[in-house]
Each structure stands twice: as structure tokens, then as C-alpha cells.
Amino acid sequence: MGKKAVVLLSGGLDSATVMAMALAEGYDVYAVSFQYGQRHSVELDCAIKQAAIGAKQHKIVDIDLSSFGGSALTADIDVPKHDTVDDLPEDIPVTYVPARNTVFLSYALAWAEVLKAYDIFIGVNALDYSGYPDCRPEFIAAYETMANLATVAGVQGRKLTIHTPLIDLTKAEIIQRGLELGVDYAKTTSCYDPAPDGRACGHCDSCLLRLKGFSDAGQSDPRGYV
After folding, report:
1. pLDDT digits (tens, 9 = 90+) for 58-115
2. What is the DSSP letter of 101?
3. Closest Cα partner for 9 from 48, 67, 56, 62?
4. Is 177 domain-assigned?
5. 56: which residues sit within 8 A by CB, 6+ positions away?
6. What is the Cα 138 distance to its own chain's centre?
7. Which of 90, 110, 152, 180 has the fewest beta carbons under 10 Å from its own?
8. What one-character DSSP code corresponds to residue 119?
9. Is 179 domain-assigned?
């Protein structure tokens, strides 16, 4: 049996790349995705396709962050749209979902304990991202410290590690690494506000950062756009 890792798999470009990296490092991947009250299910459809490629198991956990709202992804708030990356605001955007990565990592940690897995992979990025506070290295380091205080394995001296292999990469570098590992980016989505047929809007923050990444990498994005 190989070493086990829990991978947070959203259905997006970053998480697909992280799963491919974990597989390349020899981990048995246990993927976890979330139906958290987000405004669309396109990303979950992509996560199912990605998990089918190499995950030992894939769980979709139902939680309801829309009960609290506070984000354009979980409440009746318009998703901001822009023409270019240069138009993106410097402030934390309204697409930030309060405490989302804290909640997601907690579920991943619980499953890791059950699996006796000591590695969790998450595709957070501190360069080409939208300024979310729970994507910063400081947050991950603090969470890892907490996890090792809160678990039986940690108390018994078996350290749990949260891996963030994308945290210092540009979006172009992430895409290049994924292509080297055979990631099919047509089976990923990054759009916050897709059309009913699943095509990406091309103007939300996430779409613009994704498109810039493909352009900088000298590649065309295989995802369909409106």
C-alpha cells in the first residue's frame, strides 16, 4: 500500500494540478470536494471527472455556507465582472467566502485521521490569486500547527503536513507543471458565474486570472467561454 494523502479537489485548475502532483509523488489520493451552497455545480461535475482519473476514493461533503451568506458565491450578490486583469481591485473581493478554507481543511483533517493519513494537499496560491486571507502561507502554517495539537496522531508524535505546492507559483507556472503531468484542463473550471450550459463567463476575477495564466504560458485554454 502506498502512503495516503487527502487532497482538496474543487474542480478547478489549481486543485487538479495539486492532485496530479500528489499522484506523481506516489501518494494514494483520497479526494474530498464540497457542496457548500455555492451558486453553481459545474465545478463539482469537473471534480468528479478529475477524481475518476486517479483517486482511490472521492467524497463530496454537503455543508451549507449559504446559511451565513456574505459572499457573491453563497448569497444573492452579483459576481464582479471586469474587462482585463488590470481592472481587478486591490481589496479583498466579495467573492471571498468567509472561513471557507478553514472549514474545508477541518473536514480534510477529520478524514485524514480516520484514514491514518499524515498528508493533506490544498491548491492555495499567494501570487496570482484574488487576495483571499485563507490562501496565505501564514494561514497554512498556523492551521498545520493547530492540526498537530488537535489530533491523536499529532499528540502521539506522528506529524501531519499540509502541502501547498502551488503557493509560490504563478498561474502560468502552475499550468506548465500541470501540462507536464498530463492534466486535462478541459475538465476543470475556474469561473465564478458560468452560463447555464457550463461555459465560463470570461470576465470574473477567476476567469481573468486563468486566461492570463494560459496566455503567459503560451497556451490556449481548452475550457469553453461565453
Report:
1. 999 999 999 999 999 999 999 999 999 888 878 889 999 999 999 999 999 999 999 9
2. H
3. 48
4. yes
5. 4, 28, 29, 30
6. 17
7. 90
8. E
9. yes
Can you read off the three cell numbers belonging to residue 58?
472521492
What pTM, to 2 d.p., does this model score? 0.95
Q: How many helices (H) and strands (E) does the chain have?
A: 7, 5
**Residue 86 belongs to some domain of the structure:** no
Give the closest residue to 9 by CA, choosing from 39, 33, 41.
33
22 and 7 in contact (C-beta within 8 Å)? yes
Q: What is the CATH number of the domain that holds 120?
A: 3.40.50.620
Q: DSSP 3-state helix, strand, coil percentages of the chain (rounded to 5)?
A: 40, 15, 45
Q: What are the backbone angles phi and psi of residue 19, rounded to the nearest 5°?
A: -60, -40
Instruction: Specify the amino acid at residue 151.
Output: T
Give the count of domains, the chain.
1
- Domain hosting 118: range is 3-78+97-185
The whole-angstrom separation of Cα 166 and Cα 172 is: 11
